[in-house]
Design goal:
Chain A: The chain crosses the membrane at residues 21-38. The complex is a heterodimer of chains A (933) and B (400). With 933 residues, chain A is mainly beta. Chain A has three domains: 23-113, 3-Layer(bab) Sandwich (Phage tail protein beta-alpha-beta fold), CATH 3.55.50.30; 128-139 and 150-250, Immunoglobulin-like (Sandwich); 284-501 and 513-932, TonB-dependent receptor, beta-barrel domain (Maltoporin, Chain A, Beta Barrel), CATH 2.40.170.20. Chain A contains ten helices and 58 strands. Chain A has a 22-stranded antiparallel beta barrel. Chain A has a six-stranded mixed beta sheet with strand order 6-16-23-24-19-20. The longest helix of chain A has 12 residues, at 51-62. Chain A starts with 22 loop residues before the first helix and ends with a strand. Among the domains of chain B are: 36-126, Immunoglobulin-like (Sandwich); 182-204 and 330-387, no CATH class. Chain B has helices at 2-19, 261-273, 353-362, 381-384; strands at 22-25, 36-43, 47-55, 65-66, 71-76, 81-86, 93-99, 107-112, 118-121, 132-142, 145-155, 163-175, 182-190, 195-202, 208-214, 219-222, 230-240, 249-259, 292-294, 302-319, 337-340, 367-372, 375-379. In chain B, the strands form four sheets. In chain B, strands 2, 3, 4, 5, 6, 7, 8, 9, 12, 15, 16, 18, 19 and 20 form a 14-stranded mixed beta sheet that branches. Chain B starts with a helix and ends in a 16-residue tail after the last helix. Classes of the chains: A mainly beta (933), B mainly beta (400). Chains A and B meet through helix 9, strand 51, strand 52, strand 56 and strand 57 of A and helix 1, strand 1, strand 10 and helix 2 of B. Strand 57 (911-917) of chain A pairs antiparallel with strand 1 (22-25) of chain B, so a sheet runs across the interface.
């Protein structure tokens, strides 16, 4: 507290009266204990006396100590006289026409300014610290619930009028003027309303308004196209003025975004959606110095991986292939480097990641469980800027260059590893001959042609190449192209046209001394054209609709011999083709102030196309070549089989209070492309396969509900969500399936049911010295593979735990700011060990010892837990420095926990040996240097 | 400079973790399940057919356990029935009569286990017969090792047989490099003076022997994805060029079983589940159900397969010099020790040779190949008597 004034400190007499303290004041003056006020009677006489003088007079006469800030009293005069009146009466009298209120105990009187006539608080009223954080998004809270708002700001709680415990009046009038911060002119036609829209007003041409509000806490918001949105909490004790100043949207700064969306989680109609902001994750302890937005996503409830070094995600009990991972709208098939240790997305060019776990918008389709929508930053249109980092494994550089000032810019990022160079210089023989390299590059161009037209294009390429054994080289790459054109038809109507193309391919080269050298290749290519339209029909109805069509072409495998001596026979599996199209419409309908629903319907249709041959199998027999009844041939682009159906995307929100809501959603999704993997985890050699005559599409229905509660003053957000998901035709394999280079792949496949359910709990604290989040989920993921045919049953056709079923999942991420420049951060994760199939006996077959395995996934590997710690040093904040630096020192797996990733059993010379694999079994320290200019 | 070193340390650390992160551990049976295991292949070869019935054992005591006192029989849908009796030596069940599987007859295996449970197989029939076209050795380099690879070619003109499993029986001649004509014995040992006599009794030398070994493990190939049902250059057996079995004459009898797709799949999965997997990925293991079920309890696990397979065999002989390979070393390093009986001290900075003579003959079965007191030549028994580890019975089929 600043300038406080006190002169006298005599002890006064008995306290007599007791007065209840007001809750919100605790936050301001927590130490004060209120007893009541002095019964001392004084006589004073004021005539045009400055308020300050008057108070000092009272202080002197009453013997009480007064605390206040002189600035509150400036230019206020008082004309009143009291004769032997109680101090209380005197003070009430002199403050009658002011905004001041007071509280006192037996020694002191605290003056409180309860009516602030503008939206700026008296300087120093709050701690400086808080003030800073307000505008600076340095907190590590990097996730927020989804919000569609582009720019908004939340102002501090203010109070209007002064509290009068005896009031009987229920409503007060608040008036004021709203000005444009830049021009100081009034802002006309701005609506100011309570969040539930029960009370509202619209500003006149000069920006003046009058609004009637009920007594007590009110939450206000402003709405006007082209201006930022302001959320203003006010406590109304009486009539008063509230002036606001707004900035135009065009100038809204990115940095404001985080603080603004604090209510979005409660107010949106979306369940199970999360936004992760890359800027905010920089203090999280890293593995090998890589800031990894996808890894961070896995710390959230409901998103899991099977373990370190697995590249897939399991969202709400879904398989790893059920996630639509989009980079600027193009599908990225393998978003990881080096078998999943790093994500393939450059952190410096990434703007944000939105994850939809439940309410998937109707515009997205093709995957069952989630959408990961990664958006690349738009380049700086003002000046050249850049960012880079040097870590132990990789170096990364991103640069933003304006092309047409304020209109067009390019952002480009390149990341590469120098592990190969280091490997070659090592003395260790085993490592010297190994190879591991990767790089990725991205370029995005964005051009705002004019107010109504914007164009952007992204190109991305990533490549990995490594050899684990000396005679094989493995490589894979992703290539994406995305072109987007946005057009605004009118204030109410917008549209965007998209063209995207993705290619994913991998290659295995094997060259040993023996005569089985070969080269194996796999390639997937997809192209999509999509039109999205938005139309704001009215305040209540906001429509989105569109259509899309996507063509797939997959070369599922080709093997060629290398060298003249190779005995390998060349073989090519026929190309697969498919066309997936969809039409969708959704309406965001505000039924009343409390109830908001988003009703979406997507109709997708898929056609498997020739040229191909397909086997028809006899019913009721195991699929094998013996049960083939017919082989059908299809000509080029001839339709083999079509699948399709409606996909419902319905969600709703009901406000239970200003900061409390209940949401529910029902989602149906259909997936026509499947990932086949003989491994229990996702690996880069997996095969994506299209639905065809014998492979049905996967379908899922998810029901979810959630409660969302914010405690605004404490900056706390709570959410509690539950879901039940039922899936059909999930793909699984017969034991020992041969997936690569198999013409009759369907004979190895099983399709079964899945069900998943769970409860997810999350608390976030976004601000303050200590901030972070805590998440817990209890969830199950079960699969059932039943069939009339015994050989096609797994676990007797009963439900069993999926490979990624980890019921308890607990994550805590915390950051503690020591000073503005130094901070500590930590992650702690605990998960139930994943299920494994364990040997339960030994037997001899064909003269060799073999093991008998348990029912599938009957046992679990030990629980997983890990603690990571980090220390972050920000460079100094001098304005005119060449580059701003940031150093992150982190230790991964501080406890050195040897978390087994898998256990497996091998027959070595007729003896069964057991092995366990763990990836990082000791603490791994890393230091990374980041710079920005 | 310093910085690079640090980077190197961190990185090599990382890679070591990557590479060295797989470690063996002791398996313990968590939840042992006693499961009946059946391995039964009957063929169109006229013989005493064999059925192996065993049970799983715990992982701590691997190797399974023989199922004793089971009732085993095979029923054919032509009314024939074949009873099996347990061979007390091997524990296998052998048909009481010689019989061969006939085409177009369905066979069913029935087992009543010792604990009174009944098991039955699905009915199986004999697949098409395909003769082996050719078995031949070639010198190749496999995984950096030079050696002899025995290949098989087969061709099925009918186009019906697509799944093949191979077994082999190899027989090789052994010639002991240091034969002896004596049986040596230590007698008259005086522990005071440490003197003794070596009594030599003449004997028939055991120079030439023949060893026969049966293949273990599962070798399979399929032609279902090829244009023709032609097995070409299927590698049945690889022998390192230094393998002692190639020292004299070597013979291999390759047996080719034509399997049904179901039998082929079952064997294939069993084989794959026991094979080496990659470091970072893991195939899906699980219980493999065959074609044998428990009567009345279809959910009881039974491991095993009853198959009727058509068999075709071919035997070849070859010598290392036929393939231009050098003489491989003998099975063990034959170490002929010269003994001077009179050297009975270690004070001369050389071993006590008399002591060696005694202990080696008495405890290590060393053979005396030359004796002229006080001088002796002794050698390991394997080098002297081939019957020590092989058989001097020349097989009936053997061709020199």
């Amino acid at each position: 507290m600043a300038v406080c004034y006190s002169k006298n400190s005599k002890i006064c007499e008995e306290p007599t009266m007791k007065k209840k303290y007001i809750a919100f004041l605790i936050a301001l003056m927590s130490i004060i204990q209120l007893y009541g006020q002095s019964a001392t009677k004084i006589s004073v006489d004021f005539k045009d006396t400055p308020l300050e003088t008057a108070i000092l007079e009272v202080e002197r006469k009453s013997g009480l100590q007064f605390f206040f800030e002189t600035s509150w009293l400036q230019n206020q005069k008082v004309t009143k006289s009291f004769d032997q009146a109680e101090v209380v009466t005197v003070l009430r009298g002199i403050f009658e026409n002011t905004s001041l209120n007071f509280y006192s105990n037996d020694k002191a009187v605290f003056l409180l300014n309860n009516s602030i006539v503008n939206d700026k608080l008296p300087l120093g009223y709050f701690e400086d610290e808080n003030k800073e954080e307000y505008s600076q998004n340095t907190a590590p809270i990097f996730q927020e619930e989804f919000a569609s708002q582009t720019s908004s700001r939340t102002n501090r709680l203010i109070t209007i009028g002064k509290q009068n415990s005896a009031t009987s009046k229920k409503y007060y009038e608040i008036s004021g003027r709203v000005i444009n911060e830049k021009t100081d002119e009034g802002v006309a036609s701005l609506s100011i309303s309570t969040l539930d829209r029960t009370h509202y007003a619209v500003t006149d041409d000069n920006g003046n308004y009058t609004l009637t509000l009920p007594y007590g806490l009110n939450k206000l918001e402003t709405n006007l196209l082209g201006f930022e949105q302001i959320f203003q909490d006010v406590i109304v004790y009486g009539n008063g003025r509230l002036n606001l100043s707004l900035t135009e949207n065009a100038q809204a700064l990115d940095e404001v975004v985080v603080a603004s969306k604090r209510d979005a989680n409660v107010r949106d109609a979306v369940v199970g959606a999360t936004l992760i902001n890359i800027e905010a994750i920089k203090t999280i302890p890293l593995i090998l110095g890589e800031r990894d937005i996808l890894k961070v996503a896995t710390t959230l409830p409901g998103i899991k991986t099977t373990g370190e070094g697995s590249s897939g995600f399991n969202v709400r009990g879904g398989r790893a292939d059920q996630n639509l991972i989009l980079l600027d709208d193009a599908v990225i098939y393998n978003p990881s480097h080096f078998l999943g240790f790093f994500s393939a997305v450059n952190p410096f060019t990434t703007g944000s990641l939105e994850v939809y776990k439940a309410s998937i918008p109707a515009s997205y389709g093709g995957r069952l469980s989630s959408v990961f929508d990664i958006e690349t930053k738009s380049g700086n249109t003002e000046k050249v800027s850049g960012e880079g980092s040097i870590g132990p494994i990789t170096a990364n550089m991103a640069i933003e260059v304006p092309i047409v000032k304020e209109k067009a810019s390019v952002i480009a990022g390149v990341r590469a590893t120098y592990s190969d160079y280091i490997l070659k210089n090592l003395d260790e023989e085993q490592l010297k001959n190994s190879e591991a390299s990767f790089y990725d590059a991205i370029v995005k161009y964005k051009h705002a042609i004019n107010e109504n037209n914007t164009f952007q294009g992204t190109f991305y390429y990533s490549k990995d190449r490594f050899s684990i054994t000396s005679d094989s080289v493995f490589s894979y790459n992703n290539r994406l192209l995305s072109l987007k054109y946005n057009h605004r038809f009118s204030e109410k109507s917008r549209g965007e046209l998209l063209f995207v193309n993705s290619e994913y391919k991998y290659d295995i080269g094997f060259e040993a001394d023996a005569n089985n050298n070969f080269d194996f290749g796999y390639k997937l290519n997809e192209s999509q054209i999509k039109l999205n339209l938005n139309y704001n029909l009215s305040d209540a109805h906001k429509l989105s609709y569109g259509l899309s069509s996507k063509i797939y072409s997959i070369d599922p495998g080709e093997i060629v011999p290398i060298g003249a001596n190779s005995d390998v026979n060349a073989k090519t599996i026929d190309r697969e083709k498919g066309l997936e199209s969809a039409i969708y419409v959704s309406d965001l309908y505000e039924i009343n102030d409390k109830l908001l629903v988003d009703i979406g319907l997507r109709y997708s249709i898929y056609a498997a196309l020739g040229e191909a041959t397909q086997n028809v199998y006899a019913d009721g027999e195991p699929r094998s070549e013996n049960s083939v009844t017919e082989v059908k041939s299809y000509g080029k682009n001839e339709v083999i089989k079509t699948y399709g159906g409606p996909e419902y995307r319905i969600s709703g929100r009901y406000l239970l209070g200003n900061d409390f809501s209940f949401k529910a959603a029902y989602n149906r999704t259909i997936q026509y492309l499947h990932l086949l993997s003989t491994n229990t985890t996702m690996s880069p050699t997996d095969i994506w396969k299209l639905s065809d005559l014998n492979v049905e599409p996967q379908r899922a229905d998810q029901y979810s509900i959630g409660f969302f509660k914010n405690i605004v003053d404490e900056d706390l957000e709570f959410s509690l969500e539950g879901y039940y998901k039922k899936m059909n035709d999930l793909l699984d394999y017969k034991i020992g399936a041969q997936l690569i280079l198999n013409d009759d792949l369907e004979t190895e496949l099983l399709q079964g049911e899945g069900k998943a359910y769970g409860v997810e709990f999350l608390i976030k604290k976004n601000k303050g010295r200590l901030n972070g989040y805590f998440g817990y989920s209890y969830s199950r993921a079960l699969i059932k593979l039943d069939s009339e045919i015994r050989q096609e049953q797994v676990n007797n056709g009963e439900f069993f735990a999926a490979n990624y079923d980890k019921p308890h999942d607990f994550t805590m991420v915390a950051n503690y700011k020591l000073t503005k420049r130094f901070s500590f951060s930590g992650n702690f994760t605990y998960q139930t060990g994943r299920p494994v199939t364990y040997p339960i006996g030994s037997f001899v077959f064909a003269g060799e010892e073999q093991v008998l395995y348990s029912d599938r996934n009957q046992f679990r590997i030990p629980d997983y837990y890990r603690l990571d710690l980090g220390f972050n040093i920000e460079g100094n904040h001098k304005k005119n420095k060449l580059a701003h630096s940031f150093i992150n020192i982190s230790v991964y797996n501080v406890l050195g926990r040897n978390n087994p990733y898998s256990v497996f059993f091998v027959n070595e010379d007729g003896q069964i040996k057991a092995y366990k694999t763990s990836i990082f079994s000791v603490p791994v320290p890393t230091i990374t240097y980041n710079f920005k200019f | 400079m310093k910085k690079t070193q640090i980077l190197q340390v961190i990185l090599s650390f990382f890679l070591l973790l990557q590479i060295g992160c797989t470690e063996p551990f002791e398996i313990e049976t968590i939840d042992f399940e006693n499961v009946l295991v059946v391995e039964a292949t009957i063929t169109n070869e006229s013989r005493h057919q064999q059925v192996k019935v065993s049970r799983t054992s715990t992982l701590e005591n691997p190797g399974g356990q023989v199922e004793n006192n089971a009732e085993v029989w095979i029923e054919a849908n032509n009314g024939d029935m074949y009873q099996f009796s347990q061979d007390p030596e091997t524990g296998d069940y052998i048909s009481n009569t010689v019989f061969a599987v006939e085409a177009n007859v369905e066979y069913t295996l029935k087992i009543n286990s010792s604990d009174g449970l009944n098991y039955t197989s699905e009915a199986v029939i004999l697949p098409e017969t395909v003769a082996i076209e050719n078995v031949y050795p070639e010198v190749i380099t496999k995984d950096g090792v030079e050696g002899v690879q025995v290949f098989v070619d087969a061709f099925d003109a009918t186009g019906n047989a697509k799944y093949f499993r191979y077994e082999y029986i190899e027989t090789y001649k052994i010639v002991a490099p240091n034969p002896t004509s004596f049986i040596a014995e230590i007698i008259n040992y005086n522990s005071q003076s440490e003197t003794f006599d070596v009594q030599l009794t003449p004997r028939e030398p055991e120079i030439v022997c023949y060893s026969t070994e049966f293949s273990t493990g599962i070798r399979q190939t399929a032609t279902n994805e090829l244009d023709e049902n032609r097995v070409e250059r299927f590698p049945v057996r690889f022998l390192d060029k230094n393998n002692a079995v190639l020292r004299e004459r070597y013979s291999i009898l390759v047996k080719q079983f034509v399997q049904s797709v179901e039998a082929y799949t079952f064997y294939k999965i069993i084989n794959e589940l026991g094979n080496v997997e990659s470091l970072l990925s893991q195939g899906q293991p699980g219980y493999v159900s065959g074609n044998i079920t428990s009567v009345g309890n279809p959910n009881e696990k039974v491991l095993g397969f009853f198959e009727a397979a058509s068999v075709s065999m071919q035997r070849i002989y070859f010598n290392h010099e036929d393939l231009g390979l050098p003489v491989p070393p003998y099975f063990i390093d034959c170490n002929v020790i010269e003994i001077d009986y009179n050297d009975n001290t270690t004070l001369d900075n050389d071993p006590n040779e008399r002591e060696i003579l005694k202990t080696h003959i008495q405890y290590f079965d060393y053979q005396v190949i030359f004796a002229f007191h006080p001088n002796y030549l002794i050698v390991q028994p394997e080098c002297s008597l081939c019957t020590y580890f092989s058989s001097n019975v020349r097989p009936d089929f053997w061709e020199d």
